[in-house]
Amino acid sequence: MTTDTPAEEGTRATAAGSFTPTEDLAPAGPSAPAEDLASAGTSAPAPTFLTSLLDGRPDWPGWTTPARPDRAGQLRADAAVRRLLTLLDTDVDLEAVERDGELPEGFLKSLHDAGAFTLGADEELGGLALAPYDVFRVVEAVATRSAAVGFLLGVHNGIGVGASLLPVLPEGPLRDLIRRHIAAGMVSGWADTDPEGQGNQWPTVTATPAFDGDGYVLDGEKLFISNGPVATLLGVTVTVRGDAHAPRVGLAVVDTSDPGFRVEDELEHLGVRGLPNGRLTLTGVRVPDAQLVTVPEGDPRRTPVFASAVMTARLLIQAAPALAIARNCLRWSVEFTARRRIDGATLGEYDLTRRTLAENAADVRLMESVIRWALAGPAPQDRLFERHVARNICTDACARVADRTLSLMGGEGMETARSKRARGALPLPVERAYRDARVLRTAGGVDFLADVQAANALLAHRTRGTARQAPHQGPAQEDLSPRNRLHLAVLTDRIARFPAMADAVAEAVAPDPRARQYPLLLLGRIARELLGTAAVLAATARDGDQALTDVHCTAAEARLRDLTARLDDPGGPDHAGIAAALLADAAPKPAP
Hints:
It contains 20 helices and 11 strands. The chain is of the alpha+beta class. Strands 1, 2, 3, 4, 5, 6, 7, 8 and 9 form a 9-stranded mixed beta sheet that branches. A two-stranded antiparallel ribbon has the order 10-11. Strand 5 (233-240) and strand 6 (248-255) form a beta hairpin. It starts with 25 loop residues before the first strand and ends in a 6-residue tail after the last helix.
């Protein structure tokens, strides 16, 4: 069900810590425009959390600078939330969607009529022109009712061709085509995953020049493509062969009404039931030159402009439903605690119950703080690293909240909503939330590989010679409680030690990065714990919610101690030897 697979491992970066464009995106035909599309919207980079990590110096003033919200955009987003929640609460049987695994007939049109497919589109196209943070708020609100519908909207509004390509295309046939489809109410997505797996250098779908010289012919298969079965205009990654250029990767924009486009299978998954997801085949699909986008050198999936769109899309696709699920679980755990008694005592009188509720609330606050940092803070366009890391912060926090909630509710947590309804109990879908939360850690790229990619991005910046400043201890902050001042001091010390840690990891993995991924994994997870703590502390300096911040920082420091201890143990057990023995036993034996 992955749709946003490009990794930023090959992306170049400035010493200031912002990803900057290095390649042109252009239609593949002979009339390709000369302007640098990837440079659209760039400016002098602002300091980011990546800057702090590589310099070893926290930027407290920058972290606590409040966002400047677009009040008109907020109001439009609020109105969209009301329309869509009304639609979901009154016109759709969401239990039937979960039971049958499919959306009802006519539902996509109802979503379109409510503005769900044009959240970020220009107003002249009938869109709401919402900023990324407001688009996130709308998708998250929808996902509180249905993770599948939230996921669908996240894909379309995040990585659909209108969201990912239109903002950087010059005037021309492709831009006109996408604008016409947006105005007509298209559903879109992105088909990148091949049957052999995700993230291959060369897509298995091929694009070869048509015999009549008019455009390209696409042949091949894509798997686990969200929105693929319902898309009207779909982005497809291809390997371009047979023309005047050497083989190269391209991004083809496919009209799914082409007779060679087929949805071979609609797929079912562990969770998010009802999400349109499928195996697609393309057999002789024709696309004009203008609908095949390439770069002069390299892979357009790894251009900064496209990688930036992917990082925002991941937040819409995975983090927005994750936050929605966590909010629901927090509410359910509170309501369950309030109505349950054991031997005459309320459940809320027990220590472990109180800790569960506090930890759930603290994880929701973490997710809110990180998303605001990544999407609503100053210069979000420069915060590519933060957007990458925020996805795993949110999906892991959601998993913790869902797991605690299911444990708290015991048998009632494991029981399906349908079973509870049948016996007259409150039909809270905790079991469904647990499954949906697990899906979000895999969709769009497996979580542990996202951590490795984050570490690779850190080390790529480091190799460009980022100038490091002498670390310093920041002064105590009067807007933080005594315990949170201590947490800030510990965070400052950990950030000061991070550059040396990154140096050590780079040296450890240099001989064989493929065989030494574990230090990268740990470094990526340490970076995201540091970002989460910084985001929560910064939010607290603005809104004064000290108690939940203390809960988060205490738990995060425990996780950091564990991660650091593992990183400091370079030897460890012989995992490689054990795996080699297991694989040897599994290898086919030669015939006698």
